[in-house]
User: Fold this.
Amino acid sequence: MEYKDYYRILGVDRKADEKTIKRAYRRLAVQFHPDKNPGDNQAEDKFKEINEAYEVLGDAGKRAKYDQLGASYQAWQQRGAPGGFDWSQWMGSAPGGIRVEMGDLDGLFGGGFSDFFQTIFGSMAAASAARASGAARGPAIGGRDLEQRVGISLEEAFHGTRRQIRRDGRTLEVKIPAGARSGTRIRVAGQGESGRGTAGDLYLLIDVGDDPRFTRDGDDLHVEVEVDLYSAVLGGEAHVPTPAGPVVLKIPAGSQPGQTFRLKGRGMPALRKPSQKGDLFARVKVAIPTNLSGEEKALFEQLAAKRGKPT
Assistant:
């Protein structure tokens, strides 16, 4: 059986604290989520692997046992890996009476745990049977957390919005805060799967749709602004769209195609500090006039002649 390096899978140090591990898990889970990678079997396998790693490293009891196993496995390798590694002492439930609760990932993540996980931390089938038995004197088992994707527009992400969610025949109204990004998770406490004891939580995974006007970079926005040739040459004004409504931008004389102007504080609000906003960067696109009148064409020809350009 192959040893699984859960720290390597999540890309964290073996001394990483709980917050670091959770951050790494959330980042990778968003990146490899099947909904973001439809039809990609490799991404789906990676997603399962990430969830298995967090199932172990995100639980103090499982992590303690896994760290003991890892130290023993590394010592065996350093001795030159004589014979086969003795897995038997690590099979089943953890030493010291630590109760291992695995949960069934089939419904949520599209597949179960690896042979390594099941061998070390017990049988998923046995754990499911134990939960189903409902032994009156058994310890309470919390329900499973669930995740649901919610799509919103960039405008809704700017102002904040609400969504109605149906759970167990009831309608819940959930507030989505201003500044939400794709990958933002919103916890709805106690609305996950019910267990023998407390219910799990429901996590809404936000997906902000593309906006044809803006490109988002964190809390900053980028937009292309069309400026007529005369304003670019002589100076003028341009109307720049922002999520809060259009603003007027002064165009200096001699502005060049592709020149970018920064509009401070006109970007997206920060998720936890909505009063603090990013910037908006307006990139000039100079519109070359077509269908010139005879008079206009003559004026351009005169200008070209004065600058020594062939007409």
